[in-house]
Amino acid sequence: MGKNRPKKCVTVDEAKEMQQVWCDTRAKDIDKCMKFQDTREFYYTVEELEEYLDYVKSESLKQNIKDPGIRIYFGAYPQKKCKHNHGYATVFLAPTGSPAKSIGKGGDSAANNYDIDPLNSGTMGKPPINY
After folding, report:
1. Which of 15, 58, 60, 107 would staple 68 via disulfide (CB 3.0–4.6 Å)?
2. What sign for the dihedral angle of Cα 75, 26, 52, 48?
3. Is residue 29 part of a domain?
């Protein structure tokens, strides 16, 4: 591992364990309830993510937000808008942050920034690809 490894990285084994626990404790029940195998992994290129993060940083600076964050939400497509007519699960990335010197400006309690559009439209595995 390089010396620039972010502090919040987990090991591959830890990630595999978390994925397996999710599958063992949630996936089967969700699929049973939905009556189809829902997706549980989403793909974005590094370029797409960098482009979005650059957009969030730029728009946040225009709003005097010095420490924007990204909150990741689960979502589901409306069945009538889903090309596979299922209403598959999805995730979207939502910018957070408040102008400098405001109350609750940063960290995990930062407000959602509804003036910057969220990111969606990643691709998903059908069937899901296990980690």
Report:
1. 60
2. negative
3. no
pLDDT for 55-101, tens place per residue?
A: 999 999 999 998 899 999 988 888 776 666 677 788 899 999 976 55
Show the tokens assigned to 36. Answer: 């189809």
- Number of domains composing the chain: 1
Tens-place pLDDT, residues 78-87: 877 666 667 7
Residue ranges making up the domain that contains 116: 39-124
> Is 65 a domain residue?
yes
Q: Tell me the whole-structure pTM to 2 decimals.
A: 0.79
Q: Is 6 domain-assigned?
A: no
Cis peptide bond upstream of 127, omega within 30: yes
Task: Give residue 100's pLDDT.
Answer: 59
Please tell me the distance from the alpha carbon of residue 114 to that of residue 112, in angstroms, as a whole number. 6
What is the Cα–Cα distance from 76 to 87, expressed in whole angstroms?
6
Q: Is residue 24 part of a domain?
A: no
* Cα–Cα distance list, 50 to 36, 44, 46, 119 (Å): 33, 10, 6, 12
